[in-house]
Design a protein that fits this description.
Length: about 300
């Protein structure tokens, strides 16, 4: 009955724009996966008998939340990276009713209040505790420095050509092609793709982008958490208007951000110094005292 009601609501909203039998099969498979995962997590929780579960995830562990709620074990989720209106696992309708919120954590901790306003994640409680890994400080620059491309497995086929084009157009500038951890196995092959360019260095996926930003003045990407790290450090951001670049739409009005649809505009942007303005803040340092207090409160609260 619930599935029939869902499909009826979809038809009323969107019309019959899909194969309903295929959709039923897909939903049945996903629901089956969820129930199996929930049972497995339930067995694990019964064996380990934890007092608290601390997790970093990307919106996929609904079964764990449900199993933990059934066992009266609180779950504390720490923000994993980029979330916002474009991330379907974190941006929910504010007007919806979520019942006992059993498929959400008891507490969700964000990098700062910015992230809690950028989307609606209906955890039982949302707090901004900060994160020392991302809480970079602004460092002034007085000359144009290195340019860093932020890659990823789904962006590489596009970004590799942009990096090569910029390396040819600005041979005097050093480029860092920063790999995502999910490109680790492709590191050697990607280095070979850039072998002819003496001014391009391929940075390993295990190296943090933050550690490279000190020598960089311009960051080029489609979308990444690094966009906000770079801006908080006082660097210029060049966004290529490709794929889901509108993830960063709320940044487009900042003076340090340029949307560069072609090589000419990108070349112009990287030749300018970052603007001499106070940088925005997206990441707070970890409030360790508040985190300890919150952990104690969660564990001591009645189930």
């Amino acid at each position: 009955p619930a599935l029939d009601s869902l499909l009826e609501a979809l038809r009323a909203e969107f019309g019959s724009m899909w194969d309903e039998s295929e959709l039923r099969v897909l939903i049945a498979k996903l629901l089956s996966d969820f129930l199996m995962d929930k049972a497995a997590y339930g067995a694990l929780i019964a064996r380990v008998r934890p007092r608290l579960i601390l997790i970093t995830q990307n919106g996929l562990e609904k079964a764990l939340f449900a199993a933990a709620r059934a066992a009266a074990v609180p779950v504390f989720e720490a923000q994993h990276g980029l979330i916002g209106f474009s991330h379907l696992a974190y941006s929910y309708p504010r007007e919806a009713e979520y019942g006992d919120r059993s498929t959400f954590p008891a507490v969700f901790s964000a990098f700062s209040s910015y992230w809690l306003k950028a989307c609606h994640y209906p955890a039982s409680r949302c707090v901004a505790l900060g994160n020392d890994r991302f809480a970079v400080r602004a460092t002034p620059v007085d000359h144009v420095g290195e340019i860093m491309f932020i890659s990823g497995d789904i962006y590489h086929a596009i970004l590799v050509e942009w990096a090569k084009g910029l390396a040819r157009a600005a041979p005097e500038r050093r480029l860092i092609y920063k790999l995502h951890p999910n490109q680790q196995t492709a590191h050697a092959a990607i280095r070979q793709e850039f072998a002819e360019f003496a001014n391009i260095e391929v940075a390993d996926g295990s190296v943090s982008a933050r550690s490279l930003l000190h020598s960089v003045t311009h960051v080029v990407l489609i979308q990444s958490t690094v966009a906000l790290e770079a801006l908080q450090m006082g660097r210029s951001l060049c966004v290529l208007p490709l794929l889901h670049y509108r993830t960063h739409e709320d940044l487009f009005g900042l003076s340090a951000v340029t949307v560069t649809p072609d090589m000419a505009s990108l070349l112009d942007a990287v030749r300018r110094l970052p603007p001499a303005v106070a940088p925005p803040s997206f990441f707070d340092p970890l409030d360790a005292d508040e985190a300890r207090r919150l952990f104690r409160e969660i564990q001591e609260s009645p189930r």
